Give the backbone structure.
Amino acid sequence: MKKILTYFKESYNELVYKVSWPTRTELSNSAVVVLSASLVIAAFIFVIDFGFEGLMRFVYERIL
């Protein structure tokens, strides 16, 4: 039981005193970067999907 209590105390001390938490500004900037990258990737996938749809439509109209 003593080992478990020691583990929790050491974990708490590490989280409070040794971990460098980001500031609110850093966190906001990171969120904006992630959101922007996600939108760019989603737009890229949309364009690729739209292109493949047109290609398949063209192929199926010529074959059938």
The chain has one domain: 2-63. The mean pLDDT is 95. Residues 2-63 form one domain.
